[in-house]
Amino acid sequence: MTATDSPVAAPTTNGSQRRGFGVDVGGSGIKGGIVDLETGALIGERVKLPTPQPATPEAVARTVAAVVREFGWTEPLGVTYPGVVVDGVVRTAANVDKSWLGVNAKEVFESHLDGQQVTVLNDADAAGLAEERFGAGRDRTGVIVLLTFGTGIGSAVIHNGVLLPNTEFGHIEVGGKEAEHRAASSVKEKKGWSYQRWTEEVTKVLVAIENAIWPDLFIVGGGISRKADKWVPLLKNRTPVVAATLRNTAGIVGAAMAAVEGITAANVTATHQ
Fold first, then answer.
1. How far apart are the first and last CA of the chain?
2. What value does the mean pLDDT take over residues 171-184?
């Protein structure tokens, strides 16, 4: 039985409204919905289905197709993947099933969707696109870095509306340890750290990034960003840090943007508004 936030609205057209469809693949759930690309808001409600276990490419593709069919969507769509994707092919699988490595995810998803055109992109990149245009980065210029704190650390870099795809700041070495092994929110939970103790590690990661690329703004996402007021003020890096605002819709919105606007690793220009 389909799990939804509330009953799903059928696709609608409202004058010249630009619409897209995005699916966000997560470790526990696969969620999708129709997006108003003028506002970044969902049209109707999203549908969320449990991520299959094991989360093999075929099993995930079947679930993605089930989400899409709930809406009767037949046009191009975007799908996120939690790792590096180049020309539709998965190159890393740090926190997901290793059977994804080397798989042409674009072809797998399309084969379960009767050939509908699918754009596949990194999940943090999708969230970054959405936050830059419609969320915490709206009306900001310069270099914006989104970091998602969860099981690992995802990252997205956008400069004046242009995405630099597949950055992996969660895997850079900081003080002899991978950034996400030092400062992911899962590390905080595992070690039982206070926000004060954890933000010491987060600060080290932010400083390493800002010393390398000098961003103008950090946007922090992931579940722990809901409590940003408890820890963002404790950070001691120099670059301003704000919490993501789109929360659990960012991946859906960014995936829809990518599908409609042709944002891929080969063509990364986004329309900056």
1. 39
2. 97
Amino acid occupying residue 222: G
Query: Counting beta carbons within 10 angstroms of the beta carbon of residue 159, is it exposed (0 to 12), middle (13 to 18) or buried (19 or more)?
Result: middle
Q: Position of tokens 């970044």?
A: 40
Ranking 2-16, 111-125, 188-202, 224-238 by mean pLDDT, the lowest is 2-16
252 and 32 Cβ atoms separated by less than 8 Å: yes
What is the SS3 assignment for 210-231?
HHHHCCCEEEEECHHHHHHHHH
SS3 helix, strand, coil % of the chain, rounded to 5?
Answer: 35, 25, 40
The closest of 103, 109, 110, 79 to 89, measured between CA atoms, is 103
Q: Which pLDDT score, from 0 to 100, does residue 236 have?
A: 98
Record the pTM: 0.90
In order of start, what are the domains of the chain with their CATH numbers?
3-123 (3.30.420.40), 136-245 (3.30.420.40)
Residue 19, classed as helix, strand or coil, is: strand
CA torsion sign for 9, 273, 127, 183 is negative
Residue 8 above 80 pLDDT?
no
Provide the β-strand partners of residue 33: 22
Q: How many Cα atoms occupy the beta-carbon half-sphere of 82 within 13 Å? A: 26
Buried b (16+ CB within 10 A) or exposed e, 251-266: bbbbbbbbbbbebbbe
